[in-house]
């Protein structure tokens, strides 16, 4: 690492500050984060076990739910261990290339989660608006293709972000990152060079994945609601709407936290940095924590299977 005129040439090691202003209580903040992480691991693992072991759940909706659970486990695991290392074990340092790899993991899994939510919305759209065509449209091959597509899309789109940082940005004002994980803009802001291209591509990638998915999911549910309200029988309307409730809950909490985190990040000095960083962490931790509860409570097939498993143990 070469230091010239107060700038650092491509630091080999970066140092996380954690949550600026809350360093004295970070060890306590880590406790609820750890609890959320453990519950996320247990809840999503249970979902995966139930869906795999129950043949009646080998349908597109539950396959996508299994993908969501696996993504939640991977996303929270790519974040929490290093965060707790900062909070509890005074291990704030990370190699520059490892930081880029963590960034790729976190942003990729965020994109996969968004893509899976879109796939689930399209599944509900076909199931409710074109029920007779659902089995012929959502074939096993289509589900596989969707799974590959929602995985490759963010994995590929994030790579240029890493290359733009690695190849374009050589001079940094500091090696201290005011964050708990390697987030794209948190790292880009450390550079002393022109970062317009980095910021532009970051926004483009965010819209291509999250923004586009949000629009398509919203349009899908507008069409679903129109179809449901035109059903002649009240019982049929309630049944159709109830199948959408878990996904609607997850959709709102995922994108609500995403938008709050996005806007606080771009509010600059108007929002204290510790609030932004706390919101960023909650945005990544709350969905994996809540998703198993939402589907466990609202989905009858899964709820019945959990009850059956608990009763068999007694």
TrEMBL record:
| GO cellular component terms, semicolon-separated | plasma membrane
Pfam assignment, any one: 7tm_4
Keywords per UniProt? Cell membrane, G-protein coupled receptor, Membrane, Olfaction, Receptor, Sensory transduction, Transducer, Transmembrane, Transmembrane helix
Q: Which residues cross the membrane?
A: 28-50, 62-89, 101-122, 142-165, 200-222, 243-263, 275-295
Q: What protein family does this chain belong to?
A: Belongs to the G-protein coupled receptor 1 family.
Q: What does this protein do?
A: Odorant receptor. Putative odorant or sperm cell receptor.
Q: What is this protein called?
A: Olfactory receptor
Lineage of the organism: Eukaryota, Metazoa, Chordata, Craniata, Vertebrata
């Amino acid at each position: 690492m070469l230091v010239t005129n107060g700038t650092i040439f491509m630091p080999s090691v970066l140092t996380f500050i954690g949550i600026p202003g809350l360093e004295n209580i970070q060890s306590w903040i880590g406790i609820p984060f750890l609890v959320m992480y453990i519950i996320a691991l247990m809840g999503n693992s249970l979902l995966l076990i139930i869906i795999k072991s129950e043949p009646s759940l080998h349908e597109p909706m539950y396959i996508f739910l299994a993908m969501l659970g696996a993504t939640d486990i991977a996303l929270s695991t790519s974040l929490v261990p290093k965060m707790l290392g900062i909070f509890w074990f005074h291990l704030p340092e990370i190699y520059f290339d490892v930081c880029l790899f963590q960034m790729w993991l976190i942003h990729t899994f965020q994109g996969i989660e968004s893509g899976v939510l879109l796939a689930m919305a399209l599944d509900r759209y076909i199931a409710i608006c074109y029920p007779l065509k659902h089995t012929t449209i959502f074939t096993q091959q289509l589900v596989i293709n969707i799974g590959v597509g929602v995985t490759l899309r963010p994995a590929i789109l994030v790579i240029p972000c890493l290359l733009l940082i690695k190849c374009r940005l050589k001079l940094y004002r500091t090696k201290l990152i005011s964050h708990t994980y390697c987030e794209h803009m948190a790292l880009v802001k450390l550079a002393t060079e022109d970062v317009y291209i980095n910021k532009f591509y970051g926004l483009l990638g965010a819209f291509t994945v999250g923004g586009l998915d949000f629009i398509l999911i919203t349009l899908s549910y507008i069409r679903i609601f129109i179809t449901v309200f035109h059903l002649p029988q009240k019982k049929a309307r309630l049944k159709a709407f109830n199948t959408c409730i878990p996904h609607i809950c997850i959709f709102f909490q995922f994108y609500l936290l995403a938008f709050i985190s996005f806007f606080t990040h771009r509010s600059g000095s108007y929002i204290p940095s510790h609030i932004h960083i706390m919101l960023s962490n909650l945005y990544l931790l709350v969905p994996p924590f809540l998703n198993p509860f939402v589907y466990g409570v609202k989905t009858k097939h899964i709820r019945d299977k959990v009850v059956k498993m608990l009763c068999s143990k007694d």
